[in-house]
Automatic annotation (TrEMBL):
<dbReference type="InterPro" id="IPR049326">
    <property type="entry name" value="Rhodopsin_dom_fungi"/>
</dbReference>
<feature type="transmembrane region" description="Helical">
    <location>
        <begin position="51"/>
        <end position="71"/>
    </location>
</feature>
<protein>
    <submittedName>
        <fullName>Uu.00g096850.m01.CDS01</fullName>
    </submittedName>
</protein>
<feature type="transmembrane region" description="Helical">
    <location>
        <begin position="12"/>
        <end position="31"/>
    </location>
</feature>
<keyword id="KW-1133">Transmembrane helix</keyword>
<keyword id="KW-0472">Membrane</keyword>
<dbReference type="Pfam" id="PF20684">
    <property type="entry name" value="Fung_rhodopsin"/>
</dbReference>
<feature type="domain" description="Rhodopsin">
    <location>
        <begin position="37"/>
        <end position="123"/>
    </location>
</feature>
<feature type="transmembrane region" description="Helical">
    <location>
        <begin position="92"/>
        <end position="115"/>
    </location>
</feature>
<keyword id="KW-0812">Transmembrane</keyword>
Amino acid sequence: MDKREAITASNLGPVVSLLTWIMGASILLAVGIKFTLSTVMPGKRYMEDAALFLATGFSIGFTIAMSFAVANGVGRHQSTLATHQLESLQKAVYPADVLLVLVSTCVQGSVLIFFHELTPDRLHQRLI
C-alpha cells in the first residue's frame, strides 16, 4: 500500500494537491458538458470552442505543474526546505504561473467571442 503524506499544520501540500485535482476534474466535466451541448444545439460557436479547448489544455498543464510544485515543497514552511528544494520549488511554480495566465487569457477570449456573437448592436461588437 502506498504511503501518503499526512496533512499537518506544517505540511498543507496534500490539501493543495487535492484541491488542484478536484478543480481540474471539475473543469474537464464542465467543458465536456459545454462541448456536448455545442454539438447538440444549433448555432455552433467554433471560435469560442477553440479558445475554450486551449484553456482546457493549459488547465491540465497547470494541474500537472502544481502537482510537481507540491512534490517540491508547496504547502510547507520555507524555513523547513533546503536550498535545492527551494530552487526546485521555484522551477515547478514558474510554469504553473505561466499556464495560469494562459488559462485566464483563453477563458476571457472565449467569453468575449461569446459576447460578440450574442449582441446584435454593432457598437457593442466593435467595443468587444
